[in-house]
Amino acid sequence: MSSLNDKVAMRHMDMYMEQEEKYAEAVMSDTERLQSKLQSEMASRLAFELSTPPLRWGPWLYYRRVEEGKQYLVLCRRLVSLNEEFISHKSPAAGFDFTSGKKIEQKLLDYNQEAERFGGYAYEELSEVSPDHKFLAYTMYDKDNDYFTLSVRNLNSGALCSKPQAVRVSNIAWAKDGQALIYVVTDQNKRPYQIYCSIIGSTDEDALLLEESNENVYVNIRHTKDFHFVCVHTFSTTSSKVFLINAADPFSGLTLIWECEGLAHCIVEHHEGFLYLFTDAAKEGQEADNHYLLRCPVDASFPSRTWESVFIDDQGLVVEDVDFCKTHMALILREGRTYRLCSVSLPLPAGKGVVHLKELHPHFLPLPKYVSQIVPGPNYDYYSSTMRFAISSPVMPDAVVDYDLSYGKWNIIQQQNMLRERTRILYGTASSATISLNAKSGESVNELKSDSDNLWNDLSEFYSCEQYDVPSHDGISVPLTIIYSPKYKKENQNPGLLHGHGAYGELLDKRWRSELKSLLDRGWVVAFADVRGGGGGGKKWHHDGRRTKKLNSIKDFISCARFLIEKEIVKEHKLAGWGYSAGGLLVAAAINCCPDLFRAVVLEVPFLDATNTLLYPILPLIAADYEEFGYPGDIDDFHAIRNYSPYDNIQKDVLYPAVLVTSSFNTR
């Protein structure tokens, strides 16, 4: 498999893969009727959205829609003022009508045409409309060269601009009100290391603003939401720095505003003369377990610049994310396992210094039950007080929700309705509810008791969600979430599926999946193990499941599996495991340790040959991969890798569960 350039070897590889596929088909041949039935069931529930929910930015509504008979979407926009006649306020609400409204539509980018440019394949990584709405900068994947190509399109004429047309681009940000584009280029090992600035319409060569020669340092850029600054983040495992570029004069140089030891996540925003920094950097020499928010005046000079905390530390309340508009700050909070969403009016009171959140009179916004994740939407429009969020739950299809932070309105913009088997896009409809802006600052309004309850397509009436704390091998409690149908659940009779990931500090994906309904309605219990190494428990939770401590995440997963069987939630010998990518490593290592604990496992694009991959990377690995799984040059890390690497620890003469491995064979 490593001989990517050897055509004879690749032909042998193709033949081998065909044999593997025929073997899998033969083993599963007696389930063909069941597979067909399940496939039909699952396909009937797929949400075929013909249009994404339109996103308002200034005078425009931007959206992507299906082009009839074509494989790829089309990026479009229309003026808000012209769209009013195509909004239905009748009952039941029809919402966004992109079909009859096509006469007012402007087609910006047809990805079917992009596929013709890039060998029949269209995959976009970055897409940014300029703040003056005149240009679109975007990057498309060139599969033949395994890199992303940057293009800029004039939105008035539809023509491609002659420059910039760069390759190996990893980041883009607009400057000079849309007259200039700043972009980052990677080296041959996919390390972002150069920053260029291109003046749109100019014949001058793009100017190099920064080149990072240290092979261990990576470069990232993003613009502040008001487009006043472009922030440059340079980082390695040993240090992090943040610089500002004045967007009005991108050639005026980089100004250092922040630096710290160690690898730190840093997001900078600007609001009316103040810079806000959301970071997880060490505090006073002590490692911070979670992110926190700092601010300082924008005109302060370095190194005398003093950053002060916005909120007093509250051990029980973690700020998971923050978003800004001109009038409000939105905060995603977590109390234990409970997620909350609130807004705070801006600007913050002058002269107050660091405060408790409740002193700023936050307005808590309504959420459904059992929220597992809240993700901010693009929210491009800095001057709008309406913010969009995607709300996820194990017992509710994902909801895209617009919250108007000034007037207390909220509206579910898009959500699949599993009961009526359709997806609704309700942009501009009257089906909204009002947030009580008089809720006391400590009072949660997550579970609204009003007529608006039925706005959430919540399935908790049909499927139960339960949460447990499972003691692991060292006494640490591991969060375990299970969902099941009370109608079909029988004590100690149910088969079960246990899902885990546990890597990179990433939150385990516990969203509702329509395909799981086929299991739940047949009496299956679906469980999610939030093992160490993953997210949701702070930096220590992540670090306690990586490198030399990777065995913790594997033992956490095994403990959750045993808990399900011992508590008779799942019948013995009827438990399956499921993991993808790094989660595939977790599940595979678990069956090496306890092959008799599982009846079957599904491994999707799994990371299985950790020792060889880390020792002899055929494709470039980044620092984060070694920080996660270990540096084989470090003797302690090497022994840890050998201990958990699934491919190196397959037991001899032991009966293993049935294992289905799915992957794809390409250059990645």
UniProtKB/TrEMBL annotation:
Record-annotated Peptidase S9A N-terminal domain positions: 12-415
One of the protein's GO biological processes: proteolysis
Superkingdom of the source species: Eukaryota
Domain Peptidase S9 prolyl oligopeptidase catalytic: 514-664
One Pfam family of this chain: Peptidase_S9
Annotated InterPro entries: AB_hydrolase_fold (IPR029058), Pept_S9A_N (IPR023302), Peptidase_S9_cat (IPR001375), Peptidase_S9A (IPR002470), Serine_Peptidase_S9A (IPR051543)
GO MF annotations, alphabetized: serine-type endopeptidase activity
Record-listed E.C. numbers: 3.4.21.-
Keywords: Hydrolase, Protease, Serine protease
Family according to the record: Belongs to the peptidase S9A family.
Task of the protein: Serine peptidase whose precise substrate specificity remains unclear. Does not cleave peptides after a arginine or lysine residue. Regulates trans-Golgi network morphology and sorting by regulating the membrane binding of the AP-1 complex. May play a role in the regulation of synaptic vesicle exocytosis.
Protein name per UniProt: Prolyl endopeptidase
Source organism of this protein record: Citrus sinensis (Sweet orange)
Lineage: Eukaryota, Viridiplantae, Streptophyta, Embryophyta, Tracheophyta
